[in-house]
Design goal:
35% of the residues lie in helices and 15% in strands. With 355 residues, the protein is α/β, with parallel strands linked by helices. The model has no long low-confidence stretch (mean pLDDT 92).
């Protein structure tokens, strides 16, 4: 939530989502930050508390074939599947008292999981801020829009990345832009019908070479659709060929700079990663990864649905060794070299449309 909220709007957010604040969560938050600071000072991992942010992957199936997404372009090596509702509930029961926010997506389209709205409701009832990201193709009728609003979802990102079918399908391969527009309209209408303040609806535009001239029109579309916010996001690439094809010409919309022939994320610290202290990634089958940049779970920390408690994983040898490695030299891990942690321009423009 914080990276999408202006300082002016923050008090309004705190008031609206007062239910997520509790003494236990605030105490855990303080413990995590204290141990993080001590770890930076001593250059060795000290971990107190539990993650106060959790990323959960409802599924790694997707209906689109986006060329820069490992799920869509076929480069993902790990098994495909969807998270079981019972496994999700177990995770919430174990960690929900400390978790402020649950980001419910990763390498797939969340609404392919038929239990997704039930998952949101379960986390919502536990007092957790729920947040998801979708390609917008699964709000096909008024009943589905109403179910999303009634689930208690707090915030949703809907990916656009184009202003007409021609530009849209260059990246969102297999998608239909009119279905995205119609899905957004249904969500806005469902909120109004139910007199609900949530979910906040963000229309997201990833800037690429083929669409960077469409930003003004995209923002006008967002205003016409009456969403809450319009987000402009930079693209992540994986190779020089990707960079040549997709990165925009405008420097302010590129998260990379070139150094000795290598593309490097701007502003990356030489060592350390705060995410390893305050967040974790639980994939559809319970495989725990350090973060969402571990697309194939090459650095599996444990199995949340099979091993003992999550605390044993969070404080376990694999996690602690990985933290030590990143504290010493984060560039020694390839995926960390292409990570946006430390880069302040991932969302280069956030416009609040509805207050």
């Amino acid at each position: 939530m914080a990276y999408l909220v202006s300082s002016k709007a923050l008090p309004r957010y705190i008031k609206r989502y007062a239910r997520v604040f509790s003494f236990k969560r605030l105490a855990n938050f303080s413990a995590v930050l204290s141990s993080m600071g001590l770890s930076w000072l001593l250059r060795r991992p000290i971990v107190w508390g539990r993650p106060f942010m959790l990323m959960v992957e409802p599924t790694n199936f997707c209906n689109l074939k986006c060329p820069l997404c490992p799920s869509g372009n076929g480069q993902m090596l790990r098994p495909r599947g969807t998270m079981e509702l019972g496994d999700f509930e177990k995770l919430v029961d174990e960690l929900g008292d400390e978790v402020f926010m649950m980001m419910m997506w990763n390498q797939g389209e969340p609404y392919i999981n038929k239990c997704f709205n039930q998952m949101v409701r379960y986390a919502h009832d536990a007092g957790i801020f729920t947040f998801t990201s979708t390609n917008g193709h699964f709000v096909r009728n008024d009943e589905q829009a109403q179910a999303i609003v009634e689930s208690g979802l707090d915030e949703i990102i809907v990916s656009l990345d184009g202003v007409d079918q021609e530009t849209y399908e260059k990246y969102r391969v297999g998608g239909q832009i009119e279905r995205v527009f119609e899905g957004v309209r249904r969500l806005v209408q469902a909120k109004e019908t139910l007199r609900s303040l949530t979910p906040l609806i963000n229309l997201q535009f990833i800037v690429m070479k083929h669409n960077e001239g469409d930003l003004a029109e995209a923002e006008a579309l967002a205003e016409g659709l009456r969403v809450d916010k319009f987000l402009v996001k930079t693209a992540q690439v994986y190779s020089a060929d990707d960079a040549e094809e997709f990165l925009p010409e405008e420097e302010s919309f590129r998260r990379y700079e070139e150094s000795e022939g290598e593309l490097l994320v701007k502003g990356q610290p030489a060592r350390g990663c705060k995410v390893l202290w305050y967040s974790s990634m639980v994939n559809w089958n319970g495989a725990v990864a350090p973060c969402c940049f571990d697309k194939d779970v090459d650095f599996e920390m444990g199995q949340a649905f099979k091993d003992g408690s999550f605390d044993e994983i969070w404080q376990g040898r694999a996690y602690m060794d990985f933290r030590q490695k990143i504290l010493a030299d984060r560039k020694s891990v390839d995926m960390c070299r292409n990570c946006s942690e430390g880069y302040r321009g991932m969302f280069s423009h956030v416009k609040e449309i509805r207050g």
